[in-house]
Amino acid sequence: MKNWFCYALLMLTGLTNMVNANGAPDVPASPLQIAFLADIHLHDPYQAAEGLNAESLPRDPVTQQPLLLRSMNAQLHSTRLFNENYWVLRAALTDIARRGIKLVALPGDFSDDGQPANVKALNRLLNDYAERYGMRFYAINGNHDPVRPFSRPGGKKDFLAAGGSELAVVSRHHADCVARRTPYCTDELQEWGYAEIADTLSAHGFLPHPDDMWFETPFGTTDFTQRHWQWCDDDNVSDSCIAMPDMSYVAEPVEGIWLLAIDANVYEPTGKLSDGQFKGSGNAGYNALINAKPGLLSWITDVARRARQQHKKLIAFSHFPMADFYDHKAQEMAAIFGPGAMQMARIPSEDTTTALAATGVKLHFAGHMHLYDVAVSRHKNLLNVQVPSLAAYQPGYTVITLSQQQNTAQIDTVLINDVPDFTRWFALYQKEWQARRAGSVSPWHADILDVTSYGDFTDAHLRQVIRQRYLPREWPAAIATLFAQHTINEVLVSTGCSLAEESRSHYLQPYLPMNALHLADDFYRARNAGAMATFSLPVAFYLRMAELLSTRQCSNPTTFTEPQQLRRLLMLISESVTRSPGDPQHIEYAFD
After folding, report:
1. Are 42 and 405 contacting, i.e. CB atoms less than 8 angstroms apart?
2. Most buried residue, 16, 141, 303, 334, by CB count within 10 Å?
3. Signal sequence span per UniProt (predicted)?
4. What is the 3-state secondary structure (H, E, C) of 226-257?
């Protein structure tokens, strides 16, 4: 019997039942609510442009301020947007304020890469909403903030120039600035480490808020200089040790609720610790944390024990997932795409999830993957909710509503579709597109600039990333070419299917002439958004395709070189779409 997870229910009525036409939510005032905003990746183009040669940069069409924007070409090769996050974060915070939600958790990657310009801009924005609406923010670090545990030079080579080309902008101590390979240098783009980030955002979780009823860290102090683990090289020589920061904390913002913020970053050294060089933490996560931070696990276990004893509702959040976000399909995916594809290295092992469940944490909100997913541990005693990113399809945030009278909660994910001003810089991207075409550089598809909603923008972005990144990098080359150049009918024939009997089928026949990339689009939509995905083809099509692939109708000879691999992929796509309601937009949860 599941003692905590009553049932999950897909909200068939969609977002219109969550926000009415006037933007006012229909939410009772009495229950306590906490919003989770993951993977904001804020980049402030106005702040980042300060101090640079304004003549080289594009200008805001409304204010005429210089802007430091990443190019659209850069955005279309990334799993996330870079620029429009500036607008969608404001829209999300305004929506949260309209709902009367006062507590907001930020499970990491709240900045682009921990740059001073972006961390300071985030701090100003959070201060503003805190002052105007009485909101309190609880941030914890992600692998982008910081990129490495200690500050280092930073910058990018694909910022948008005034004429539509790309230019490099880096910090003053970056190799490209020192060697004068670029004249555009600003320390606003260095990558801050823990100390600078925590100090700047100290009012938003890293230190106790004046209204917190209780606050604790694993180190028995709030002093940033003392919040670290002692890591030493194997030779155990004193000068081979470093203090590895850890900003974990637990706070009681209101009576009876404990918010456990876990700093799950693990920065493995590239050589000796004394060298001061570290890998990024993106692929480490809890698989690495189990061995790298045993003291943190012990503290989490103790916090969970005390929460039970004191009858506190413990809600944990961190940047990294605690459970399998691919619904135990990793083995099938690896057989098709290879073990290094689709960020499968980031999946917590079953042993890791079991160890985390053994700490006593039962409810955890995560980010990192830029997708929405609901997963439970093997013994059904840990629920992991992957909060969607504001910077990817489908954009949104997650809210937990706690009943004051009962030991229950509702978990809802809110989609952000309408974002004021998100098209504001589209004319600058149009100029970029024209410059690429004039320079005989392959332009991206300009139809992304025809969208009328932010939700559609993220969908168009995803479709372009599939074509620009996922297919060429992760798919078997022959299958990627087949999908790009052929129809669904031709792809099915390539598996050995005979479709003569399907000519009158209203499930398949109307869609067979469509380009097969529609199948790829729907696969990634299902992966990213679960029950909130919208598809090019109806679910009935995928049910019939899966049924067809299991019959003798699809056992004919074919000239395609990898028919079995292709068949496995089509079955995976069908299962991903048809099972997407398994990650519902609305969940009922019961605390012990």
Report:
1. no
2. 141
3. 1-21
4. HCEEEEECCCCCHHHEEEEECCCEEEECCCCE
